[in-house]
Amino acid sequence: MTHLPMDFGRPVELFAYIIGHSQLLLRGRQDDEQGLSTTLEVLFKDVSALSVRAYYPSLTLRDASGEEEAELREAVPDPWCDARAFVLGERLLGGFVVAGAVYWGESSAPETYSSFLVPEYELPRLDMDQPRPTEPRTIFKPYPRHR
User: Fold this and answer.
1) Which of 66, 70, 83, 126 sits a CA distance of 20 to 30 A from 115?
2) What residues have CB less than 8 Å from 99, skipping those under 6 apart?
């Protein structure tokens, strides 16, 4: 069993947030030029609150300190049950996830593979050949004033 803190020492980005399953998936992509021949995935399960960035140049994952957890419990008053507060980086402002568990792993599977930590869920993919929906028409209407 690996304990926190964990320094992954590689770029990681937000890959998917699966609302119905309360899961957050971060991914570090393969980059042969930088000597990264594997794909890294970090999966948070039973997520009840989060504040994450789209990209981390180097990810460190740690448990929140007592002071940080107290601050989060005040901001997220819902019952935490068995959840823990995980901090992404050195400070709470770098990002946090309140979740029941976190898992991570590396795989040499091709990047086109949906996910090796969430294999039962087909993650949505951007299909450039599929037509995009049109932008909704903007309606300019003055806000009614009540006197």
Assistant:
1) 83
2) 22, 24, 44, 45, 46, 47, 48, 50, 83, 84, 86
Rounded to two decimals, the pTM is: 0.78
Q: Whole-angstrom Cα distance, residue 45 to residue 17?
A: 10
CA-to-CA distance for 39 and 28, rounded, in angstroms? 6
pLDDT digits (tens, 9 = 90+) for 31-48: 878 888 888 999 999 999
Q: Cα–Cα distances in Å, from 1 out to 4, 103, 104? A: 10, 11, 12
- What does the alpha-carbon distance between residue 93 and residue 57 come to, in Å, rounded to a whole number? 15
Q: Is the pLDDT of residue 128 over 80?
A: no
Helix-strand-coil split of the chain, %, nearest 5:
15, 35, 55
Question: Above 80 in pLDDT, residue 139?
Answer: no
Give me the residue label for tokens 């969430």: 118
